[in-house]
Amino acid sequence: MSFRNRSDAGRRLAARLATYKDQQPVILALPRGGAPVAAEVAAALEAPLDLVLVRKIGVPLQPELAMGAVVDGASPIIVRNEDVIRLAGVDESEFQAVCDDELAEIERRRQRYIGDRARLDVKGRVAIVIDDGVATGATTRAALQAIRSRQPRKLVLAVPVAPTDALASMREEADEVICLEDHEIFGAIGYFYDDFRQTTDQEVIDILARFPAGSGEAERAGPDSPDK
């Protein structure tokens, strides 16, 4: 199976998540790529949408290789991949420097995407965390730990695709993991999409505008909406 684009993946995920519609869930997207996937789910479930601002902490000379991840919050949650840190020979000062850079990027995104928009309260509710896929799992684990600390009644991770070996650690963090397909030989998330172009800041902003804070029902995407 491959996905035409992120919206196609979101519609397929929405079908799997349909049983949650009557439970009034909240949908939480990992931007940027998770936003168009989550938008389809939120529209189908008539659920509110918010973001989880999380950034990968990449190895200095190999930024695509995650040595950890950091999630925004009053006390930022940092997840470390000690095996990668050790193998890459990264010392603590180097790790902290990259972490600080990613926290600065999180702040930029918070101002650009969210501004003074009210944030969703997930306490006591079903929280469904969505991304366009899982790679190493570092950013996903960090996001799940951050949402868990906000005391949802149930924490669900829903992704279109993931490496088989990453799902075990995801199940340690979430109450339920829904993954449409997993592969032992993985490579990269983009291999499983026909169109995996980068989601832009403006697309994330436009998606959030379709889901006003406090609204449980989104406007349906029109034919000219992003990533269709």
From TrEMBL:
<dbReference type="Pfam" id="PF00156">
    <property type="entry name" value="Pribosyltran"/>
</dbReference>
<feature type="domain" description="Phosphoribosyltransferase">
    <location>
        <begin position="8"/>
        <end position="186"/>
    </location>
</feature>
<protein>
    <submittedName>
        <fullName>Phosphoribosyltransferase family protein</fullName>
    </submittedName>
</protein>
<dbReference type="InterPro" id="IPR000836">
    <property type="entry name" value="PRTase_dom"/>
</dbReference>
<keyword id="KW-0808">Transferase</keyword>
<keyword id="KW-0328">Glycosyltransferase</keyword>
<dbReference type="GO" id="GO:0016757">
    <property type="term" value="F:glycosyltransferase activity"/>
</dbReference>
<dbReference type="InterPro" id="IPR029057">
    <property type="entry name" value="PRTase-like"/>
</dbReference>
